[in-house]
């Protein structure tokens, strides 16, 4: 649980190899977090990475198997106690062209990008409500603020996730636990390797810095970069005939 000064002490990262997730964890450890759980597929038996002076544990986690998600939360609590920050940071980007040709692949991607987050989010929220404190950091995307023709399968899953996260935050209101929704634009990293960066792109480190600032200020929604909030206020009301021509 949080230390005597109210700083984050324990962190659970679901998607333990995520560039953004690890960048957030590194900054939380730098700020004083002492115990970290990295949960990812086939993590068992591996050697935990060194993250500052923190005690780091590994757990197996498969986003596509929601029937196991409650066990993952329970196992994390057994390892480090109360969870101060829970970061679901898993997902697949994929290609709209592939999804157009293979609806099964599209459905499987949505099951992870939306369904997996719903499952682990509800399990995490239940635990944080019982504790009476803690934050779920939900990595949404501007792709879900208004879904574009160029990546509508991915964007629709993010739209669902964004709505779910806001509803979950409202459901937790007054419990001491909360949800922070993070809406990055294009993030330059492994997931987008080979793609031309969009305007107002960010790095995983920049997203992580914004998350830390949001945690400190108890923000409910964080845009990365912040200027995207103004841009999407306009984009939300663009006529559909114009919007459907947007390339990305």
Descriptive key words:
248 residues, alpha/beta, Rossmann fold, seven-stranded parallel beta sheet, 8 helices, 43% helix, SDR_fam, Short-chain dehydrogenase, NAD(P)-bd_dom_sf, oxidoreductase, oxidoreductase activity
Helix content: 40-55%
Low-confidence stretches: none
Return Rg in Å: 18 Å
**Quantity of strands, as a count:** 7
Compute the separation of the termini in Å: 41 Å
Q: How does this model look, in words?
A:
- The protein has 248 residues and is of the alpha/beta class.
- The chain has one domain (10-243): Rossmann fold, CATH 3.40.50.720.
- It is 43% helix and 16% strand.
- It has eight helices and seven strands, in the order E-H-E-E-H-E-H-H-E-H-E-H-E-H-H.
- The chain has a seven-stranded parallel β-sheet with strand order 3-2-1-4-5-6-7, with helices on both faces.
- Strand 6, helix 6 (204-217) and strand 7 (221-224) form a beta-alpha-beta unit.
- The model has no long low-confidence stretch (mean pLDDT 94).
- This is Short-chain dehydrogenase.
- Residues 9-190 form the Ketoreductase domain.
- Belongs to the short-chain dehydrogenases/reductases (SDR) family.
